[in-house]
Every structure is written in structure tokens, then in C-alpha cells.
Specification:
Blueprint (H helix, E strand, L loop, with lengths): L6 H27 L1 H9 L6 H16 L4 H21 L5 H17 L2 H4 L3
Helix pairs in contact: 1-3, 1-5, 3-4, 4-5
């Protein structure tokens, strides 16, 4: 597989990564500023961890945005979203949105890093 990405693939990767990063940054900011999020985290028993989770989300999202660190960001965001999915599942809440986000993270990772697909051949 060639090392150079097509222009369309590069642009698509940046656009999707930018949208996902924006979504996650808004989510992290909500953890700091929205009282209803504080209530949810307290209900889940994670009230004291809200700021740490938000900072982890910010760092992971930024690592995901930049091509050189996008794989590390994809792994960290997968762990983050996995935790969100399990938290929602264990409290009988919907988790479809978090599942779709983690799928988009990996689709973007494969679009931006075609060498990942060569590992499966």
C-alpha cells in the first residue's frame, strides 16, 4: 500500500477527525460547566472523577486530531468511550450514541492510517 494518501482521503480524514474532536471537546466542557452532568456523575458514583475524566477526554481528543498521534488518540478514545458505554449500560441508560462515536473513531483511524488495514491481510 502506498504511503501517500489521496487528497480526498486526507481531507475526509481531517474533516471527520475535526468533527469528532469538536464533539468530544464540547462533551468535556460540559463536564466542567453543566450542573445536570454533575448530577449524572454523582448518580453513577463518579462525582469526584468528573474533572479527571474531562481532562482525559480533552487530551485524548487532541491526540486523535493530529495525524502523528492519531492512533494513540484512537486507542485512548476507545477506552474512554468503552467506559461511557459500560457506565450507561450498567445504569439501564441508552448507549447507542457512544457506540456510534467509537465506530466513527475507528473508521476515521482507518481512513487516516491505511497501513492499519494492511495488518489484516
Amino acid at each position: 500500500m502506498e504511503n501517500q494518501l489521496s487528497k480526498t482521503r486526507k481531507i475526509s480524514g481531517w474533516v471527520i477527525a475535526g468533527l469528532i474532536t469538536t464533539l468530544l471537546l464540547f462533551s468535556a466542557m460540559g463536564k466542567f460547566t453543566m450542573p445536570e452532568m454533575a448530577e449524572n456523575f454523582a448518580k453513577w458514583g463518579l462525582g469526584d472523577w468528573r474533572a479527571i475524566i474531562a481532562v482525559g477526554e480533552i487530551v485524548s481528543a487532541l491526540l486523535f486530531l493530529f495525524p502523528k498521534t492519531s492512533i494513540i488518540g484512537a486507542f485512548l478514545l476507545s477506552a474512554h468511550m468503552g467506559g461511557a458505554i459500560v457506565t450507561h449500560m450498567s445504569h439501564g441508560e441508552p448507549f447507542i450514541f457512544q457506540s456510534v462515536v467509537v465506530i466513527l473513531i475507528w473508521v476515521t483511524a482507518f481512513v487516516r492510517n491505511p497501513e492499519l488495514l494492511s495488518k489484516f491481510k
